[in-house]
Specification:
transmembrane helix, Methylamine Dehydrogenase, Chain H, mainly beta
């Protein structure tokens, strides 16, 4: 299925974006960026409101504001979900919060009004079109004005700026970043959003951080409480914020371990984090030395006091799901998450859509299932599935990702199925790309409680641990199959008993017995001389506890001139002699043996009779034909 895509190139680099939550058709978004402060590039700083056409194939500029060239470019922004009406009651105001550093001169004086509030007044009129259908199109026209600017951070680091911004009405949070070599006085500022009739936010307080926050997210878990999660490179922290103003101390709920099993000596680093529900968060971490990226879901502790150490069993977040991104993603850069079933209370059964961008300008989309077991009061996340893997979405790095918002179902019985839009921006190509993803009702959802899922095919993602288990099972089954096949063909010693369960026509000659006999012979081989063969036979019989070894004159009994001498084992048949020592032989027999050994080249007078002692000699009438070569 082809996904509708719209692209627009603007005149300035883009660093921040967000969809307008008040737009029920998810066609409006805000982007911002620029050339920065006091630049000589001629690129200005701007903030732009964009709108998609009805077919989601074109992006139009609804409103735009030129920001001061003496100040920094917009580094972060968020759009408020509470609708604001214009003074005349006819227009529609979109309230935008942005992070913009003041001019260098102001910062040197210790004044940096980094939090800006913009009000975009949008109205639309109907104008005739000259297309083939001569239909009417809505053309948005609006104006953006700056309403207020505020200082939230108490740090005086001249390299600091407002890097992160998250809002969850009526509360919001902003975090510092730095352009210097290391972070100093890193902070997260918590503030109340102004009411629709006000313009100035109210600072609640700041959190002093030991390290700069890599990413953060905020979620309203009840009418009286919010939760804030943030990560630095190694650790994940959780903060509880009450409506009465109480803010808990940051609790470290997870520390990134070193994967020694994979041969790593350096810890992976957190890159992004997002709330799924009050129970689960999703994070992206990059492996050391550009070794790839992993997507991880964590179950959060239910009690922050436990995270403080009162109950070690509930103190930490636990890994609930994990998957490695494809090999072409050496590092992940952005993460976006959206639940497809809006809920004012606890989230029940729902599907989440996840987007991750890589350093190669790729965008990957996944789905994740959230399931609630009502009887056990337990929530689970499972079935992480990959939907699409778009390559080279932008000409250069992707600087931001954002999903549109899913509006709660209205009371209308017949309501169009919503769509989900995914927007991405490129800082080098100055481009905005919007993909429109189709949704469909879940087959089991009720008309009054509609549940949506993504209307695209997906494939399961196998986690690293699952891959190891599956690979081990495959190799074990393959080994069993090969063992059974070799047993049937007689190539190996029976272990599985496969020869007992197959037709006789399948059976092969038991070659393994011959192989073992050959190997045993090689083990005791010492040379080709008579005495070497005799000594090898003696050692073999000693190890296996069988019979004595005897030298026997080979050939016919009447063959006095014979030279054949055999090394045999004796005593294997009733009445057979076990051989005699050299001194036990009759004189005539000793002389006969000397002559035969001389003719065979195995003895001479110079060797003496000492070499013949300790050897058993057999009589022609009492030998065993068990030849040992």
């Amino acid at each position: 299925m082809t996904v509708p895509t719209a692209t627009l190139r603007l005149s300035y680099p883009l660093y921040a974006l967000d969809f307008d939550p008040t737009s029920r058709d998810a066609k409006r978004l805000v982007v911002a960026g620029g050339g920065g402060s006091s630049t000589k590039s001629g690129i200005g700083n701007k903030l732009t409101v964009l709108a998609l056409d009805d077919e989601a194939k074109e992006i139009q500029i609804s409103a735009e504001i030129d920001l001061s060239r003496e100040e920094d470019a917009v580094s972060s922004l968020a759009v408020e979900s509470r609708p604001v009406k214009g003074k005349d009651g006819k227009g529609e105001i979109v309230r935008i919060y942005a992070g913009v550093n003041s001019s260098l001169e102001s910062i040197k004086k210790g004044k940096n009004e980094h939090l800006r509030v913009f009000d975009a007044t949008l109205s639309h009129k109907t104008a005739s079109s000259s297309d083939e259908k001569d239909s009417e199109k809505k053309q948005f026209q609006g104006k953006i004005t700056e309403s207020s600017r505020t200082t939230l951070f108490s740090a005086r680091d001249p390299d600091a700026y407002q890097r992160l911004l998250r809002i969850s009405p009526p509360l919001a949070a902003a975090a510092t970043g730095t352009t210097g070599p290391s972070s100093r006085d890193s902070q997260i500022a918590l503030f109340d959003l102004p009411s629709p009739t006000q313009i100035n936010p109210n600072l609640r307080g700041t959190l002093e951080l030991a390290k700069e926050a890599t990413d953060m997210d905020m979620l309203r878990v009840s009418d009286s409480q919010h939760r804030l999660v943030y990560v630095d490179e190694r650790d994940m922290y959780l903060v509880a914020i009450s409506e009465d103003g109480h803010v808990s101390s940051p609790r470290c709920v997870f520390s990134m371990p070193i994967d020694t099993a994979a041969g790593q000596t350096v810890r992976p680093t957190f890159r992004c984090v997002r709330f799924l529900t009050e129970t689960f968060v999703l994070a992206v971490a990059n492996l050391p030395r550009g070794g790839g990226a992993i997507l991880q879901g964590f179950r959060l502790p239910t009690n922050l006091s436990a995270a403080a150490g009162e109950n070690e069993g509930e103190a930490k977040a636990r890994l609930a799901i994990s998957a490695k991104l494809p090999k072409h993603v050496a590092r992940a850069t952005n993460l976006a998450v959206r639940g497809l079933t809006p809920s004012k209370g606890k989230v029940g059964d729902a599907q989440f859509v996840v987007a991750v961008s890589g350093q190669d300008s790729s965008v990957l989309v996944y789905t994740l299932e959230h399931t609630t077991l009502v009887q056990a009061d337990v929530c689970l996340v499972s079935q992480l599935r990959r939907v699409v893997d778009w390559r080279e979405v932008h000409q250069g790095p992707i600087s931001g990702l954002a999903f549109s918002y899913i509006a709660p179902p209205s009371e209308k019985e017949e309501e169009e199925t919503p769509v989900l839009r995914l927007a991405s921006i490129g800082s080098m190509g100055n481009t905005v790309v919007v993909h429109t993803l189709p949704l469909r009702p879940h087959p089991s959802s009720k008309p009054k409680q509609k549940r949506y899922i993504l209307g695209l095919r997906s494939s399961p993602v196998i986690a690293p641990t699952q891959m190891i288990v599956v690979t081990a099972i495959v190799f074990a089954l393959l080994a069993l199959f090969l063992q059974g096949a070799m047993e049937v063909k007689g190539l190996t010693r029976p272990v599985l008993g496969a020869r007992q369960v197959v037709p006789e026509s399948w059976l092969g000659r038991e070659v393994w017995r011959e192989i073992e006999q050959h190997q045993k012979g090689k083990r005791y081989y010492k040379g080709d001389s008579l005495w070497d063969r005799y000594q090898a036979a003696v050692e073999y019989q000693r190890d296996h506890g069988q019979n004595a070894v005897v030298l026997k004159a080979g050939g016919k009994e009447s063959d006095e001139e014979g030279v054949d001498i055999d090394v045999v084992t004796s005593g294997t048949a009733e009445g057979e002699s076990t051989g005699k020592q050299w001194d036990e032989l009759a004189p005539a027999q000793r002389e006969a043996w000397k002559e035969r050994l001389k003719r065979a080249g195995q003895w001479s007078e110079e060797m003496g009779e000492a070499v013949l002692k300790g050897v058993l000699f057999g009589e022609i009438a009492g030998v065993v034909r068990g030849l040992v070569r």
